[in-house]
Amino acid sequence: MGIYVNPGYDGFEEIRRDIYVDKTGLIAYMNSLIGKPKPLVSFSRPRRFGKSFDANMLCAYYDKSCDSRFLFEDLAIAKEGSFEKHLNQYHVISFDVTGFITDAKEKRTNVISEIKNSILKELREAFPGCIEAEETAIKQIHDNRYDGVLKDYIGNLLLVGINYDKEAKGEGAKKHSCVIESV
C-alpha cells in the first residue's frame, strides 16, 4: 500500500469506528458506471461535508491490495448485486489536491506537476518497468490510450481525487475546478 497508489482501507476503517452514516449508495452508483465510456464522475460537496470520507470509502471498497469485505458487509452496498463483482478488484490512485497546493507553493512549482510527479513516482515503485518515461505515460493517458501500456501491465485502474475546496472566485475558481481533470 502506498500514499497514492493502492492506499488500502485504513482511512475508512478509522471512519467506521466512529458514528457513521451509510453512504455506500455512492458505491452502487459508481459500480453502474464501470465499463462505460469515459466514466469521469464529480461528486460536489460543500466544505467540511464529507469529500474525504467518500474518497476513503471508495478507496477501501475498490482497492485490490487489501481485503475490506468486513468493513462493508453490514452496509447497504452488501445487498447490491454489484457488491461482489467490484469489491477489491481495482488498483486505485487517490490524492487530495489541498496538500499538493501547499507543497507547490513551498517549492514554487505547478500543482498539477506536483501531483503527476508524486503519482508517477509511486506507480514506478509499485509496478517497475510499467512506466518508462513520464511524457509517454501522460501522452497515452491523455490520448485515451490507457488501455495500452498501463492496462496491459497492471489491469484496471480507478482514480479517486479530492479537489481543492477553498472558496475561489473568478479565474481562481475555474483554475481549481479543473485540477483533477488535468491530472
Number of strands: 2
Mean pLDDT: 75
Helix/strand/pairing category: mainly alpha
Span from first to last CA? 21 Å
Helical segment count? 11
Q: How much of the polypeptide forms β-strand, as a percent range?
A: 5-15%
Largest sheet report: 2 strands, parallel
Q: Radius of gyration, Cα only, in angstroms?
A: 17 Å
Q: What is the helix fraction of residues, given as a range? A: 40-55%
Q: Please tell me what the overall shape is.
A: globular
What strand line-up does the widest sheet have? 1-2
Order of helices and strands: HHHHHEHHHHEHH
Low-confidence spans: pLDDT under 50, at least 5 residues? Answer: 145-149, 167-183
Topology:
Elements: H1 10-16, H2 25-33, H3 51-62, H4 69-72, H5 83-86, E1 91-96, H6 97-107, H7 111-126, H8 134-142, H9 149-154, E2 157-162, H10 171-177, H11 179-182
Parallel strand pairs: 1-2
Helix pairs in contact: 1-3, 6-7
Please name the defining characteristics of this protein.
single chain; 183 residues; two-stranded parallel ribbon; 2 strands; globular; disordered C terminus
